[in-house]
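--- STAGE predict ---
source: upstream dedup step, 1 unique chain passed
mode: sequence only
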Amino acid sequence: MIDEEVEKALQFVKTYAYDVDEWRHLKRQLLQNLPPKKRKLFSTRDPITKVQNFNEFEGKVLNRWVEITGSTLILNQP
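--- STAGE serialize ---
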């Protein structure tokens, strides 16, 4: 189960970004709609390679997004 604030942010983002198909786009929208304490739960990019890391919390958020919308997201690296 994910945090209540994150759940509310997911529900809000779903209202306007229901057609999002990549994880990084959803993550960006969530980060814009969450307070700093919740944003810290998300992973950061590797400082040298700039590759996005993916942590356990993000896996839970991704799974919840699939439950809510029924659509899977692409985990492409930039």
